[in-house]
Design goal:
Layout lengths: L1 H42 L1 E7 L7 H11 L4 E4 L1 H6 L1 H9 L3 E4 L12 H19 L16 H9 L19 H9 L7 E5 L12 H15 L3 E2 L2 H5 L5
Parallel strand pairs: 1-2, 1-4, 1-5, 2-3
Helix pairs in contact: 2-8, 5-6, 7-8
């Protein structure tokens, strides 16, 4: 009986912990995401976003494609990569693109302890501000689009604008540029937020060039459909003149 009571108590404690640490922030996140996508939709723009960079061989190719078409995008950078490749991160900013936070180590907010999670965000923020001399409060895309209680507090404490996405072709797992482009263009419309990755792992099936190659087809479709493009912050601040 004592063992059963202890187990019951432990299950109850874990349940309360998960409800508070994960459950409540998840509900808040769902509300924020719905409101975020509605705001982007009202701008009528397509927002191209890139996560997990900067990474040589990928970010630079993506910048070349965007520059060719004169399109500005939003790059959510991992602080660890900014420290490794500061000149590439600076090139993103100097090219007129928006830079946003995406933590330092890209830890999953539900799969690490609370203090590691908040440290991940604070260290990522510090790396961006120190190495890129950012004076504003960068927009944030939480790792994996998830929040826990402390990362929710972080967002509220620093009055963060939190970004999500509407189209995710999972380009990091695709084996061809065509499959990535089709996964995006099949859903593309005014108000779409497209999630792509410039922080790619290079291997035989998943090369660094795929996302930049797919980007050409995606932008061709944007142009053919006469859709405008904006950065995330531009779309959130959009007001019809």
């Amino acid at each position: 009986m004592r063992i059963l009571a202890v187990l019951t108590f432990a299950v109850a404690v874990v349940g309360v912990y998960l409800s508070v640490f994960v459950g409540f922030p998840h509900l808040v996140k769902r509300h924020w995401r719905k409101r975020f996508l509605a705001r982007i939709k009202s701008s009528g723009a397509v927002c191209l976003t890139f996560d997990d960079g900067p990474q040589p061989g990928s970010t630079d190719r993506i910048l070349d494609v965007l520059g060719k078409f004169g399109i500005k995008a939003t790059f959510f950078m991992v602080g660890e990569n900014v420290v490794k490749y500061p000149s590439l991160a600076r090139r993103v900013l100097d090219s007129g693109h928006e830079v946003g936070e995406h933590s330092y180590w890209h830890r999953h907010p539900w799969k690490c302890d609370p203090f590691s999670s908040i440290q991940d965000l604070l260290k990522g923020k510090e790396a961006l501000k120190r190495l890129l001399n950012l004076t504003n409060e960068p927009i944030l895309r939480p790792p994996y689009g998830k929040l826990n209680l402390l990362s929710l507090f972080y967002c509220l404490r620093f009055k963060k604008r939190v970004a999500f996405w509407g189209i995710d072709p999972k380009d990091y797992s695709q084996s061809s540029a065509l499959s990535i482009a089709k996964a995006v263009t099949g859903q593309l419309e005014a108000g779409s937020v497209v999630l792509l990755h410039d922080g790619r792992i290079s291997n035989r099936r998943n090369s660094l060039e795929l996302t930049s190659q797919a980007l050409v087809g995606i932008i061709d479709t944007i142009v053919a459909r006469d859709l405008k493009t904006l950065t995330i912050s531009e779309a959130l601040d959009w007001k019809e003149v």
